[in-house]
Amino acid sequence: MHFTYNLAALAGLAQGWPNFEKHSLVPRAISYIDSETGFTFSETRAAATLSSNIVYRIAQPANVPSGQPYDVVLQVVAPNSLGWVGLAWGGSMIRNPLTVAYPNGQKPTVSSRWATGHSTPQQYTGAAYTPLTKGNKSNGTHWQFTVKCTGCTTYTGSAGETTVDPTGSKRLAFACASGKVSNPSSTSASIPVHDVYNYITQDFSAGANANFAALLSKNGVSGGATGNATEKV
Ligand code: HEM
């Protein structure tokens, strides 16, 4: 099923007359400071169903030189009703890095994929994921992962080499399914087709981190200094 409803508009309608004209759209992306990892993320909530959201958070170094590849930290919080969630960094399913993740006990598995058509994506070696020591967990209602990605924001797609602008708003795509993955500890597990796909607008400017490499280091991960070459770790 493909949700095209505007939930904010529906919420506005639900408020009913006479307050109808007062309703305003919620900002699409906000800054979220994660006290656990210390990163400042841009955050978007994507409707997985009419009553549940997937939260997509992206952090990147401040002052990335124009056109230069850069690492990101991706944090996603998903309801336990979902068997997998995905993010398409180029804004569509085909020919761009796909981050696919599924719950796996306490620590979700994150898998790098790439699709050449509207069929099961294959594994993709152009992007590498490193889990942070914090921010990977699950509880009775949600599962969450937090990873560094090298290669998510620069890729060779249908339009040649493309780098996602770290300073602007960008349309990304997401997908999810309630169907569970049968061998969730494997990064090459088969995933059932999505029940839902849709688009989110991520305002990267809300997730710039001047101390990106130092924060990675605090979370047990090296690298990530792109755009911050003079930063002291
Ligand atoms: C078993 C795996 C998958 C299969 C079989 C599959 C199949 C398909 C098919 C048949 C469509 C077109 C259907 C329609 O128009 O309603 C589609 C569209 C789409 N899929 Fe997938 N898909 C898979 C995984 C993924 C993943 C992992 C993502 C993102 C992380 C994704 C994102 C999208 C998006 C955004 C669209 C909308 C059209 C587009 O952007 O190309 N899909 N998929």
UniProtKB/TrEMBL annotation:
- List each copy of the Cellobiose dehydrogenase-like cytochrome domain by range: 32-213
Which named protein is this? Answer: CBD9-like protein
Q: Which organism is it from?
A: Clathrospora elynae
Residue ranges that the Swiss-Prot or TrEMBL entry lists as coiled coil: none
